[in-house]
């Protein structure tokens, strides 16, 4: 497994960028649906606001522990953040 971005397959890099965008969009939509600010979700889930901003913009991924923490605050199963449209 390559360790440097320059060694990665461009298609694989593109797929991960798309996935990060999708997860971030779902988190943002659910957060807004629940009338939570980024700061409130960050505080309740244990991530920093800057990390949450980057996640929502698809610039950064999450450890699965943080994904579970965010899902718990949003009151959805963690899998809903990974697949499918956001649901209330």
Commentary on this structure:
Helices cover 64% and strands 0% of the residues. It is built from 5 helices and no strands. The protein has helices spanning 10-33, 38-45, 49-56, 64-74, 78-82. α2 packs across α3 and α2 packs across α4. The chain starts with 9 loop residues before the first helix and ends in a 6-residue tail after the last helix. The model has no long low-confidence stretch (mean pLDDT 90).
Count of helical regions: 5
Mean pLDDT: 90
| Top CATH class | Mainly Alpha
Strand content: under 5%
Radius of gyration: 13 Å
SSE order: HHHHH
**CATH architecture verdict:** Orthogonal Bundle
Write down the CATH topology. Answer: 434 Repressor (Amino-terminal Domain)
Structural class: mainly alpha
Write a short abstract of this structure.
The chain is mainly α and about 90 residues long.
């Amino acid at each position: 497994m390559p360790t440097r971005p320059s060694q990665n397959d461009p298609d694989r890099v593109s797929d991960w960028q798309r996935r990060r965008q999708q997860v971030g969009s779902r988190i943002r939509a659910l957060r807004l649906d629940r009338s939570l600010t980024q700061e409130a979700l960050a505080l309740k889930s244990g991530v920093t606001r800057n990390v949450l901003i980057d996640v929502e913009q698809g610039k950064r991924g999450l450890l699965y522990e943080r994904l579970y923490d965010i899902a718990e605050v949003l009151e959805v199963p963690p899998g809903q953040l990974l697949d499918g449209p956001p649901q209330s």
